[in-house]
Amino acid sequence: MTLAVLNVTWQTLADALSLGGIYALMAVGIGLVFGVLRLVNFAYGQLVMAGAYAIAYASVWGWPSWAGILLCFGIVLALTALMDRIVFRPLRTHSPAVMLVATFAVAFLMQSIAVLAFGQLGTIASSMGPLNQPWDIGGVQIRKIAIVSIVVAAVCLALLQLLLRRTSVGLHMRAAAMDFRTARLLGVRANRVIGGAVLISGLLAAVSAVMLTARNPQVTPIFALDDTIVVLAGVVLGGLTRPVPATLGGFTIGFASGILGGALPTNQSQYLPTFLFAAVILVLLVRPNGLFARADGAAERL
Amino acid sequence: MTLVLDGLRVRYGAVEAVRGLSLEVERGEIVGLIGPNGAGKSSTLHAIMGAAPVAGGDVRLAGASLLGRSPEDVARAGVALVPEGRRILGELTVEENLRLGLAARRGRVNGSALDPAFELFPMLRDFRRRPAGAISGGQQQQLAIARAIVAEPDVLLLDEPSLGLAPRVVDTLFGTLAAIRDRGLAVLLVEQRAQRTVALADRSHVLANGELRLTLGPQDASDIDRLIAAYLA
Q: E-strand spans in chain B?
């Protein structure tokens, strides 16, 4: 059975939705930190990679899958906290360029450590295998992980929206993203807001790690690297400073690459990034304000 | 003494914006700080808030120095700033802007925490669901003051609140400031509208080139010549 008009199968559609959901989580994780720190964390993908290794090694050691997922959350959150302490906080008052280069350095450092510690070839997270089995829904075969990740992404985004809209911490985060200086003058505690945003972004990285590992159990040092670059493009497209546009940007680019990936013949899938990034450049030419819409940098923050 | 500036000096690199300014603001009084552009008025307020580089002197609140504290700590210690240009967060609703003011509240915040703001400015209650960017400039100024008031500060600093407002709106605004003083707050009012400030404030300091040149009382409000002479000195 197919969506005849688009020549897209239901399986492809579900897969694209699920990729869009995961990318949306990563996008909002990157966007939240950018909102309060004006920092694009290029090491975000390496956090996801570390989480994926946690699941893979837990699986190698014969741990049950829930224990692997717990380990993934523990590792990712610990690394997030470490990154915040060692890199983000000390460099917070420096220029965006300094912070950008610093996150690049962290990204390559983590990737090199992974190569040294785990090798280039990678490890299989077989404990996540059952999630790759198909469910039969009305005669259509859809991978469980597709459904699970759509549901998980929707739940996470709804919870995040509740936090941002209904709690004072959420209000403070939104205010800090709009005008950090004024927020602080009103008594919003910078460290708490930044810590909160970094923590949530770490949680979202851990969730993304679980979902991506289930989709692709082959965990290598460059795991999630391509995904992160695509997500960053999506976040820039949507708008970095606001959670909702960032989320939509991430979803859109994930969904688009899912559909294109499914629609393109297998032997032409190498054209996918070409199309995707050509589209990104086109969009930015038309709407350049998607990128760094506000012209303030570290100098204006306190 | 609620707020005391003692020989305050503010320096941005080689530029000395405030040179040894001393003044005091007690509870229940308005102290005006007037002077031409670049006189160091805003720098003084930012230095109090911990948002400008202090090169010397001291800022004390009820005897304790505020120097070296972050802006959020100063706000939480009981000093609220109504910043220049209002700095309303236009994408948030009126109510969200007010709730942001609660960030500096010491102690628990209950459901009626915003009531003082609505009593002072009933208009805000009607508009509380609107985006703050969609209300008029005068209403935004009221919102900025209300946002400072809900923090229950001891000291209220205002940086040119009348800027860009129509004369009738300024009348209302200055009336509100008198009402806020009568609630027992210490108010430090930075203004360009010299005559009106002198008429309202318990005393007004004229600042030029970062130095205090002259102190005027309400009885001097009509004596514009002396004011101008002080400006040109």
A: 3-12, 15-25, 29-34, 54-61, 64-65, 79-82, 155-159, 186-191, 203-208, 211-216
Contacts of A97 (CB under 8 A, 6+ apart): none
Query: β-pairing, A218-219 with A140-143?
Result: unpaired
Residues 6+ apart with CB under 8 A from A142: A10, A11, A14, A134, A135
Helices A65-83 and A44-60 pack at an angle, to 10 degrees, of 150
d(CA B160, CA A291): 33
The number of folded domains in chain A is 1
Contact B91 A178 (CB under 8 A): yes
Looking at residue A84, what DSSP letter applies?
I
Tens of pLDDT, residues B32-81 = 999 888 899 999 999 999 999 999 999 999 999 999 999 999 999 999 99
Measured between beta carbons, which residues in chain B are less than 8 angstroms from residue A189?
72, 103
SS3 of residue A148 by DSSP: helix
**Mutation site for A-interface testing, chosen from B100, B106, B156 by largest number of A Cβ within 10 Å:** B100
- In this model, does residue B153 exceed pLDDT 90? yes
What's the rounded Cα separation, in Å, for the pair B24 and B9?
A: 15
CATH number reported for the structural domain that contains residue A283 in this entry: 1.10.3470
Confirm or reject contact between B149 and chain A (CB < 8 A): no
Whether A172 has its CB under 8 Å from any CB of chain B: the answer is yes
Share of chain A above pLDDT 70, in %: 91
| Angle, CA B147 vertex, CA B112 and CA B28 arms, to 5° | 90
Give the C-alpha distances (Å, rounded to integers) separating B92 from A161, A164, A171, A247: 15, 12, 9, 19
Residues of chain A in contact with residue B96, where contact means CB-CB under 8 angstroms, are 171
DSSP-derived secondary structure letter, A86: I
Closest-CA residue to B178 (of B191, B197, B163): B197
A302 pLDDT above the threshold of 60: no
Domain borders along chain B are 3-78+153-232, 90-150
Residue B36's φ and ψ, nearest 5 degrees, are: -70, 170
Residue that is written with structure tokens 């390496």 in the block: A46
pLDDT of residue A1: 47
Contact A256, A8 (CB under 8 A): no
Taking domain B3-78+153-232, whether its CATH number is 2.40.50.90 is answered by no
Q: What's the confidence (pLDDT) of residue A292?
A: 35
Domain membership of residue A162 as a residue range: 2-300
With an 8 Å Cβ cutoff, are B83 and A183 in contact?
Answer: no
The residue among A13, A11, A10, A29 whose CA lies nearest residue A224 is: A29
Task: Choose the closest CB to B104 out of A178, A179, A187.
Answer: A187
Cα separations in angstroms, A45 against A27, A118, A220, B85: 11, 17, 12, 40
The CA distance from A27 to A20, in Å, is 10
Reported pTM: 0.87
